[in-house]
Amino acid sequence: MSVIIEDINSGPPPAPLKAKDFKGKVDPDWCAGCGDFGVLKGLQSACASLGLQPHEIVTVSGIGCSSNLPGYFNAYGMHTLHGRSLPVATGVKLANHELTVIATGGDGDGYGIGGNHFTHLARRNVNLTYVVMNNQVYGLTTGQISPTSCHGMKTKSTPFGNVETPINPITSSIMNGATFVARAFSGDPKHMISLMEKAIQHKGFAHIDVFSPCVTFNHDNDYKFFKPRIKRLEDEEHDVSDWKAACEKAMEWGDTIYTGLFLHRQQATLEDQEAVLAEGGPLSFRPIAVTKEKSQQIIKRMM
Ligand code: SF4
Ligand code: MG
After folding, report:
1. pTM for this structure?
2. How many angstroms is it from 33 CA to the middle of ligand 1?
3. Which ligand is nearest to the CA of 133?
4. At 208, which helix (H) or strand (E)?
5. Could you name the CATH architecture of 18-302?
6. Nearest CA to ligand 1 atom 6
7. Domain-by-domain residue ranges, the chain?
8. Residue 9's pLDDT band (cuts 50, 70, 90)
9. What are 253-276's pLDDT values in tens digits?
10. What is the DSSP string of 41-75?
């Protein structure tokens, strides 16, 4: 494998790519109008504008409509278990910390089933980007309430209205210790792409919660709901180092709902603090410290 990577890196620099070059071989099977189309396109544009190549990127997802994204993206990709994108993405990053690792998924996958991992990734400050396509419902299973569904929302699992209080992904992320916390709207692609570019460039855990409407199962929080309410933080004075102001802005949920970069700070990453990664390049290219005979014995014992 190291020989292959050396070959890739030893030739002339590769030609810059366009967003369409990151299009996968499989076309998305999402419903027409699903917000996830915009997120996929946005990520492809961000990777192209940052000059990345497919072999430098790994997308990792959990389960759900949005978690099918790695199949539609021309890069290395892993479609893992429900709620488990972040631990797998951590493993990828620690095995080869030179890769650009992008975890993707939905609100049910990331904040419900995988809520535990979301907390710990943020505090560990692993250098990866996490894009959550938040449609405030479980879409793949045909429309049940998710952790971000609004109070009172009627679904097939809550015919009399949701009695639970939704979590706020932005304040949660900030309190958990994330070093880059943003919110985007897939109906505002230019702004979303600029946040994705910054998130990928950020050294540390970068979390973007994207309002990505489910046009089939959430008729409360659709494009018509968001469009008149969305205001960009960048159009106002907002200090991205002020976590209290960031939380106050993130909790607005009425005529105004903010998108943009809420919090941005620098802190040593998990990889930076791991002494074993400091020298010798990525672990995945280092020789295995066992003899061929020993490895055969181990394989035999395991089989
Ligand atoms: Fe998108 Fe909702 Fe359709 Fe799933 S069910 S593809 S989230 S619109
Ligand atoms: Mg969802």
Report:
1. 0.93
2. 9
3. 2
4. strand 206-211
5. 3-Layer(aba) Sandwich (3.40)
6. 30
7. 18-302
8. low
9. 999 999 999 999 999 999 999 888
10. HHHHHHHHHTT--GGGEEEEE-SSSGGGGGGGBSS
